[in-house]
Design brief:
The complex is a heterodimer.
Chain A lengths: L1 H13 L7 E8 L2 E8 L8 E6 L5 E6 L5 E5 L2 H4 L3 E7 L4 E6 L1 H8 L2
Antiparallel strand pairs in A: 1-2, 2-5, 3-4, 3-6, 6-7
Chain B lengths: L4 H13 L12 E4 L2 H11 L4 E3 L15 H9 L2 E4 L18 E3 L14 E4 L5 E4 L10 H18 L4 H29 L3 E4 L5 H7 L2 E4 L10 H14 L3 E4 L5 H9 L3 E4 L12 H17 L2
Parallel strand pairs in B: 1-2, 1-3, 3-4, 7-8, 7-9, 9-10
Antiparallel strand pairs in B: 5-6
Helix pairs in contact in B: 1-3, 2-4, 2-5, 4-5, 5-6, 5-9
The chains are: A alpha+beta, B alpha/beta.
Chain lengths: ~110, ~300
């Protein structure tokens, strides 16, 4: 939890002043990759999809956003060993991404 | 669980090997930098006792660079991660960075950050809304550059306590050089008087504000010839401002410079140096740009 808080703090101070940009955050917890999306205004995207890319930038998974703006999928360590990039495009036309490095994945897998 | 020393060094070894660093370089502390000015400051402060990681390709704009997984892994592993802040670059918001090793070098002067134009638009069913942005080329005010260098020095001394004395000495020399740039820039401002200036891109807000320059901007891509519409917009800006001097952020095509002369503008190239130059360094190139701008303003 402390690690997640630290991450959130860094993201907060580094973010730009744009009023309603899409923010994507992803982490691994108990063998599940959890993707959270939210506009900087606080609103949740009403629709959209998440594309999961492997270390070679190949799309390995495409999933729709749930009603709460999240996506969850089981971690495949074999596919994810080189890290993952998660790209999200919303129905409103915004997009953003989050990078999970091998260290991020390893740390989450061990939690 | 924090990154282990072994895995951090392994990641760094992989990244540094791609930039042909000496084999022993992985034993030294690493400072990752979000733009070239910070990389230059880190190189000066480290004085050879630290490796500087600036992974943005030479042909990329660091403001918009999107790193790969390996880039982020290497940055995460650095001993100090130097961010510009002020909204410069979005990648720091797209990955987890270790808070204890990350430093926002403009955090100490947040009240001096310059807000830029607000754009209001609408799309989808979200209604009308606005984007307000922050000018991010803070280092073009050399007093702010000095504050950034000082903040970076503090972070490096915390992470490399055995090098603290050397970093402090290097910091003093660097701050002296930046003070020299600041003095010269103030002279340029005094020489300009009320002369209006147009820049090829809105990246000189801090330079204009710090040194009393009357600067307007068009928004031209540094690597493309301006379109007919862009030339027309420039003529409108000239008419509105009475500008006599034009600043290019990068060397333009010869034809563009010739056309600029027909519009009655004297032009000069003044790279803001967000990315590493092919030749020269931050100090020498900034000094050259100031000399050239001063000469143009004096000869008017």
């Amino acid at each position: 939890m402390r690690r997640l808080l630290a991450i959130a703090t860094v993201v907060a101070f580094a973010s730009t002043a744009q009023a309603h940009q899409l923010n994507v955050f992803a982490f691994v917890q108990d063998g599940t990759v959890i993707v959270e999306t939210k506009f900087s205004s606080g609103k949740i995207p009403v629709s959209g999809e998440a594309r999961v890319l492997d270390a070679n930038s190949e799309v390995i998974l495409t999933l729709p956003l749930e009603e709460d703006g999240t996506v969850r999928f089981p971690l495949d360590l074999e596919v994810a060993s080189g890290g993952m990039t998660i790209e999200v495009t919303t129905g409103e036309g915004h997009d953003d991404y989050w990078i999970l490095t091998p260290e991020d994945i390893a740390n989450g897998s061990e939690s | 669980m924090p990154l282990s020393t072994f895995s951090r060094r392994a990641t760094l070894g992989l990244m540094l090997s791609t930039v042909a660093m000496p084999v022993l370089a992985q034993e030294r502390p690493v400072v990752a930098a979000a733009n070239y000015p910070l990389a230059y400051f880190a190189e000066r402060l480290g004085g050879g006792a630290a490796d500087v990681l600036f992974p943005v390709p030479a042909d990329a704009d660091p403001s918009f660079w999107r790193p790969g997984i390996a880039d982020i892994a290497a940055i995460q592993s650095a001993d100090v991660i130097a961010l510009n802040g002020a909204g410069f670059a979005t990648w720091p918001t797209k990955a987890s960075l270790p808070r204890s090793r990350t430093v926002n070098t403009s955090a100490g002067f947040s009240e001096r950050l310059i807000k830029t134009d607000t754009v209001t638009h609408s799309h989808g069913d979200g209604g009308q809304h606005s984007h307000t942005d922050t000018a991010s080329y803070t280092w073009l005010d050399f007093t702010l550059a000095s504050e950034q260098a000082g903040t970076l020095a503090d972070a490096m001394m915390r992470q490399m306590p055995d090098q603290a004395d050397a970093i402090a000495a290097n910091r003093d020399a660097l701050l002296g050089d930046l003070a020299g740039l600041n003095t010269h820039a103030a002279t340029v401002g005094a020489t300009a008087g009320s002369t209006a200036i147009i820049t090829s891109h809105p990246r000189y807000q801090y330079f204009g504000a710090a040194y009393g320059l009357d600067i307007s901007a068009v928004d031209w891509d540094a690597n493309e010839d301006p379109s007919a519409a862009q030339w027309a917009a420039l003529e409108d800006t000239i008419a509105a401002t009475g500008a006599a001097v034009f600043i290019w952020e990068a060397e333009p095509a010869t034809a563009s410079r010739e056309r600029m002369a027909t519009l009655g503008l004297t032009d000069v190239v003044f790279p803001p140096l967000a990315n590493r130059p092919a030749e020269g360094d931050f100090l020498t190139l900034m000094e050259t740009s100031l000399q050239q701008l001063e000469a143009v303003l004096r000869d008017r």
